[in-house]
Amino acid sequence: MSVPVLMILRMLCLMFLVTALPAEREKTPPGVGVIDHRKQKIPLSLEFKDEDGRTRKLGDFFKEGRPVVLAPAYYNCPRLCTYVYNGLRDSVAANLRSGLNPGKDYQIVSFSFNPEEKTVIAGQKGSNYRKSVDTGTVHQQDWPFLTGDAANIEALNSAIGYQIKKDGPDFSHPSAIVILTPDGTISRYMYGVDFPARTLRLSLVEASAGRIGSAADSVMLFCFRYDDQTGAYTPYAWAFVRITSVAILGTLLLLIFLLLRKDKTPRNP
Q: DSSP labels for 97-116?
């Protein structure tokens, strides 16, 4: 077979492979995502409606010493929001079993970024999720589902860097929850639809500056740091270096003490 024929056959095969492979789709449309606003405070004066139709300021849900999980979504979302809330619900339930209680140790606040949604759908959604965590344990004040007007929604989305885009009757939006300190400062974002219970717990303990959680959590935070790439707490090398250094120093001081004590011990004649 001649060289030109072989070249033509190779080109045809390449064209076939290119057309046969599905085009790679963007994970999120342009203009949709999260802009990292960590260490910035959100405006706690923004007003929303709770499930009973009462006007509430965001600041009403921020108590001294209590960190906050902020969960943006919309309640009639046909796809992603349900997975986000399911993941959050599972993590909350797991931490509840280990002694970290919403409403006591931390606060959860959900808000709809669809201004057309009202208190009825918010109440239904909130009741369903609170019951699915643990019936009778998590109450509306512990995990409220809020609705609001366009101006307050836009202001809150802008403050947390949450970018959405209207897509027909629905919205294109990222999947993330936001961990805030008791004064409303953004401490961390957790991305995706699966929020490991241990990672959420440590994020809340860290955001509270150690006011909640156990001694074991404090040790974990000393030895581990949150890795944005993996979305989990990973060993902190410098902490282990310090621990090893202190252990070595303590051992040397103990040896010196024992040697000096031995030298001072009177000998029998």
A: HTT--BTTTBEEEEEES-TT
Distance CA 49, CA 144 (A): 10
Cα–chain-centroid distance for residue 140? 21
> What are the start-end ranges of the H helices in the chain?
3-20, 80-97, 119-134, 150-160, 197-207, 215-223, 237-264
CA angle 103/178/239 to nearest 5° reads 95
- pLDDT for 240 equals 40
> What pTM did the predictor assign?
0.75
Longest dimension (CA), the chain: 108
pLDDT for 212 equals: 85
Place of tokens 């056959």: 9
CA 262 to chain centroid, in Å, comes to 57
| pLDDT, tens digit, 9 for 90 and up, residues 80-89 | 999 999 999 9
For residues 95 and 202, what is the distance between their CA atoms, to the nearest angstrom?
A: 11
Q: What is the mean pLDDT of residues 235-242?
A: 48
Query: What tokens were used for 88?
Result: 């959050």
All residues at 6 or more sequence positions from 88 whose CB lies less than 8 Å from its CB, including other chains: 69, 71, 108, 177, 195
What φ, ψ does residue 109 adopt, rounded to 5°? -135, 120
* Whether the predicted pLDDT of 16 surpasses 60: no
Nearest-angstrom CA–CA distance, 196 and 246: 32
Taking the C-alpha atoms of residue 268 and residue 135, their distance in angstroms, rounded to an integer, is 76
Tallying the residues shown for the chain, one arrives at 269
Mean pLDDT, the chain, whole residue set: 82
Considering only CA atoms, which of 100, 108, 103 is closest in space to residue 125?
A: 108
Nearest residue to 69 (alpha-carbon basis) of 105, 108, 36: 108
